[in-house]
User: Fold this.
Amino acid sequence: MRFIADLHIHSRYSNATSRDLDLDTLWRWGQLKGIRVIGTGDCTHPGWLEELEQKLSPTEQGLLRLREEPPECLVPESCRAPASFLLTGEISCIYRKGGRTRKVHCLVLLPDFDAARRLNLQLARIGNLASDGRPILKLDAKDLLAMLLRASPRALLVPAHAWTPHFSIFGACSGFESLEECFEELTPQVHAIETGLSSDPGMNWRLSALDGITLISNSDAHSASKLGREATIFDSELSYGGIHDAIAGGAGVAGTIEFFPEQGKYHADGHRCCGVRLTPAQTVAHGYRCPACGGKVTVGVLHRVELLADRAEGARPVNAPPYWSVIPLIDLIGGALRVGSGSKRAQALYFELLRRLGNEFRVLLDAPLNEIAAASTATLAAGIGRMRTGRVEIEPGYDGKFGTVSVSADAEGAT
Assistant:
């Protein structure tokens, strides 16, 4: 069965997240976006885990469903579909290894509540799980993997946003040069990485060391409306076992839905305080220092990939699944109407499009452009057409500042 999953999100128990991140809201937005399986996020937090156990019921397929679903009227009929949850969490591992401080964020997937409780019992001996939905622990990522497998051999650990400079396995500031350097003898138990907003599969294909690693994408949403800004398309059994086996073996992952990586806030090098954005070559020429103030430049994802790559740009491994680069529909609408994406006009057209054409992913990827034009404006339909063919103009993000993407007629021919 073909379906879309977003397995890395957060709850309202995580720092710097929206207060609306509850199960009912996620259930609603999952359907609006076209997502069949939603990660619970934050399953290590005792308060959130208790709420999950109270409100979710295990299914025979190893997924979770709301015991009492909200009224159907909250979702347009065109978007309604069964929505399931899967137990997930993110752990921030900060520790010393190889003479350096390492900061690695790890996504964990768990098959049931018993496994989550067993993991949490181990982690609670190390740090305070109630302080943050994404706990910060003085814990080697390899040791976390060992604990996770003790909790359940069917659990999965996925290095999160693998290239982000500050908190990832390959990050320029505190990461490693390889999976093996981080996980040592347990590396065969790491089956996938999450590419993150600032990289896409094409960039990761440049590393032959990742040929046997499944590439997945998720939103890392801190508010419900951000759900699905990246996601993974599965062609497998709609079950925990089907998702586990697809990630572990790779064959059941049919592709990913991606940000344009340049839009990510760590794609390019730069120094945000001075408004300086640099290419990798410029960073090297300036000795990794800001040409304006002399401060240290934050090395972005593009540069880090260049340093670790052993293939030329454009290389593609045999049997690598495809990916689709998209712009959030609300942003496209705001651009077409020349208003802010949070404006009443943009919001009204967003929900009208979903009512008439179906969920957001259908509008972005599949709906005929003439139908989009009839339901909205010719300008929006043309912009979606340019997005689908990559005819966009982008100012890359850097040092924590998101990039900008334009699908205006001026972007015709740009890549």
